[in-house]
Each structure stands twice: as structure tokens, then as C-alpha cells.
Amino acid sequence: MTVAEYDKCVSQYSDNLYRFALKSLRSDDEAKDIVQESFLRLWENREAVLGGKEKSYLFTVAYRLIVDRVRMGKRYTGDESVLRTSPAPGRPDYNGISELIDRFLDELPPLQKSLIMLRDYEGYSYREMAEMTRLSETQVKVYIFRARTALRRIIGDINNIL
User: Fold this and answer.
1) pLDDT digits (tens, 9 = 90+) for 41-91
2) pLDDT, tens digit (0-9, with 9 covering 90-100), for 102-126
3) CA 113 to CA 146: how far, in whole Å?
4) What is the DSSP letter of 49?
5) I need a labelling partner for 12 at 20 to 30 A (CA). Which of 43, 75, 135, 152 fits?
6) Is there a contact between 54 and 43 (Cβ–Cβ < 8 Å)?
């Protein structure tokens, strides 16, 4: 991988990677750290990463870093409300639905939440998600099915949130 190819990857994938990390961690600083570390690892392993597989590599690294951060966060026993940021309710276009959906997603186990976000927010295929998470395609489908079932149970009727 040349410097120009690396720069192209940064410009192409940094925003998507940041959104994925931010949705998972809900911390701007931690999401930026994840993106930076993912691109650093891409550069360090540029000879080993096959051409055309940069995106998959980046999201795989980011996913694993996020899982590590979530595991570390579970050990934290302080006030978690300090760690979370939410949109300001005073904004004219604010209706609270996004925050509500994020709260419902937070009720899912971390793996299911990550898979839902990779599938529904980032548009990855089952095969790509299986490669990233080192699960089989069948396992990925099962986890997504369970997550969606749990979300339906949590949300209930869609009119409850509208």
C-alpha cells in the first residue's frame, strides 16, 4: 500500500468508521481514538492487507477495539451518566426518537448491538460481518434475528415512540 492509497482510504472510510465507533461508544473522544488506532494499525500492517480489503480490515480492527473498550467500561464502577452525551432537547428539530432508539440499542448485548449497527447503519453483508467478528454467517444471522426480536419486544408498538 502506498501513501496515496492510504490517504485515499482515510478520506473514503474515516467518516463511516467514526460514526460506527460513536454509535457504539457514545463518546466523541473515544470514537476518535478508535478511528486513529484503526488507521494506525492499517498503516503498520499495510503490506499484509490485501488490496481491496482495507475497509473490511479497518472495521474489523475498530470492532475489536470497541469490544475491548466496552469490556473495560464494564469494570468501571463510577457514575456512567458523566460518560454519556445526548443531544440538547432545546433544539427546534429535536424530537427525542434518536435518543430513544439509542437507549433501546443499549439494552442489547454488545455483540448484538454491534451486528445491528454494522448491518442496518453501515450496510455490511452477512459474510463481511462474519469475517469481522470471526463468527459464521449463520451465527451472525441468528444474533441479528435475536437482536431484532428483542428490539420489537422492547419497543412494542411503533406508535409508542412516535
Assistant:
1) 888 888 887 777 788 888 888 888 887 777 766 554 444 443 444 444 444
2) 777 878 888 888 888 888 777 788 8
3) 11
4) S
5) 135
6) no
Largest pairwise CA distance in the chain: 52
The single residue listed with the C-alpha cell 460518560 is 83
Vertex 55: Cα angle to 138 and 115 (nearest 5)? 35
In this structure, what are the phi and psi dihedrals at residue 111, rounded to the nearest 5 degrees? -65, -45
Does residue 79 or residue 140 have the better pLDDT? 140
| Residue 78: per-residue pLDDT | 45
Could you tell me if 114 and 66 are in contact, meaning their C-beta atoms sit under 8 angstroms apart? yes
Q: Retrieve residue 118's grid coordinates.
A: 454494522
- CA separation (Å) from 75 to 70, 71, 124, 144? 9, 7, 30, 26
| CA–CA distance, 25 with 23 (Å, rounded to integer) | 6
Q: Which three cell numbers stand for residue 92?
A: 427546534
SS3 string of 97-123? HHHHHHHHHHCCCHHHHHHHHHHHHCC
